[in-house]
Amino acid sequence: FPVNQTARLEDMEKGMAIQSGNDAAIALAEHVAGSEEAFASLMNSYAAKIGMKNSHFVNAHGLTAPGHHSTAYDLALLGRAMVRDYPETYAYNKVKEFTVGSIKQPNRNLLLWRDGSVDGIKTGHTSEAGYCLMSSAQRGDQRLIAVVLGGSSEKQRADDSLALLNWGFRFFETHRMYEPGKAVAEHKVWKGAVDKVQLGVAQPLLVSVPRGRYNDLKPTIDVPKTLEAPFTAGQKIGTLKVTLDGKTVAEAPLVAVAAVEEAGFFKRLWDSFWMWWESE
């Protein structure tokens, strides 16, 4: 993008995602946060929010700089969050080419031409990091993310990424454990028009595990011991965790499937007495 030129926000996002436009990345950072430094602070806050414990960012474009680093696992967490939380923006990553003015440039992710199930995510290259690729593919309900760092060429990072994805689809399976709107559990409610609240998930909970291990999954719920009405439908009440061999493989908020209205005066008074009694 030429200096002082204005452009549509969508085009800037596409220029960054498809063409790896560092100028677009900096312009977007300054537009959102006022400066690239301030935007890097937002990046670090978001990284911490989604569990990226071994990453720290100091710029928006990703070029080598002191204190700027990440890991394959952290980048996979970032890719998962993008797929889950920003599907419209994520879709830019599968666009094979983008034209600005008279210049047409192809997406650098070679897998978009090799495998129809691949729809992202992002390439990267510096002399220190080598050729890198965070890729993702979806086959049926199963979506996998692969991260390759330190490749020796564009071809090698693509070859290794596709090999990882194919290995994952061959040896892992994805199951829909819970659907939204259906009760996973129920819990005692005080001072409510009903005595129990049904708990469920807001989004489908999909879990990928090694083939043949689905029956070994163990779901647990974490809900406050005492719940007092009212609750609105969809309100977060607790957390659902799914573990395999003691390791958490999926986690989702537990929400109220249906609203629980507050009870009348005498029911609230009666429940208050019993809550006091049980606390003694």
Note the main attributes of this structure:
12 strands, 280 residues, three-stranded antiparallel β-sheet, 3 domains, 30% strand, Beta-lactamase, alpha+beta, Peptidoglycan synthesis regulatory factor (PBP3), Domain 2
How are the secondary structure elements laid out?
Blueprint: H1 9-19, H2 22-33, H3 36-49, H4 72-85, H5 87-90, E1 97-100, E2 103-106, H6 111-114, E3 118-126, E4 130-139, E5 142-151, H7 154-171, E6 172-178, E7 185-188, E8 196-200, E9 205-210, E10 218-222, E11 236-244, E12 247-256, H8 265-279
Antiparallel strand pairs: 1-2, 3-4, 4-5, 6-9, 7-8, 8-12, 10-11, 11-12
Helix pairs in contact: 1-2, 2-3
Walkthrough of the structure:
- The chain has 280 residues and is an alpha+beta fold.
- It has 3 domains: 1-86, DD-peptidase/beta-lactamase superfamily (Beta-lactamase); 108-174; 179-278, Peptidoglycan synthesis regulatory factor (PBP3), Domain 2.
- Helices cover 33% and strands 30% of the residues.
- The protein contains 8 helices and 12 strands.
- A 5-stranded antiparallel beta sheet has the order 7-8-12-11-10, with no helix packed on it. Strands 3-4-5 form a 3-stranded antiparallel beta sheet, sandwiched between helices. Strands 1-2 form a two-stranded antiparallel ribbon.
- Strand 3 and strand 4 (130-139) form a beta hairpin.
- Helix 1 packs across helix 2 and helix 2 (22-33) crosses helix 3.
- The chain is elongated and about 75 Å long.
- The chain starts with 8 loop residues before the first helix and ends with a helix.
- The mean pLDDT is 95.
